[in-house]
Here is the input.
Amino acid sequence: MAVWEGVVIPPLTGYYNIEVTATDGCRVYLGGVAIHNQWHLKTQSSYTYSDIFLDATEYYDFAVEFFNTEGSPVLVISWASPTLGIAMTPIPVSSLFHNESCDCSGTGYIGDQCTISRELFSFFLFYYYFKKILINFTTTQILMSATL
Here is the structure.
């Protein structure tokens, strides 16, 4: 099992749809509430959760738990806001932070106080070393693919 905890900050205030695409077990918590809880063996599936209000001036606790038993693991968490003109896209690393101590104005990065979602990269290291996952890490999103 892999776990990542931090905070997420939306780019604009408004209503969002959040989509979780995963194989096997995945739980996603937003603001301390489990918005996705599919903790069982399954084929790749997508679930969309609509009308979640997010304020761009707020930090929201964000946690992800994930496991994969066999086959190619997939985990993509995306968001969209049709009213704000945001198409469904993986949550960018610029919106994910390891903790609340960062100043998210400007670049959102001040020294070592705030680790922008490169911490999310370590979320998948367990799978990389033990299940040979190929991880593509970009500055705008994290994509994960694997062959076992």
Summary: The helical segments are 118-123, 125-131. The CA atoms of residues 9 and 95 lie 5 Å apart.
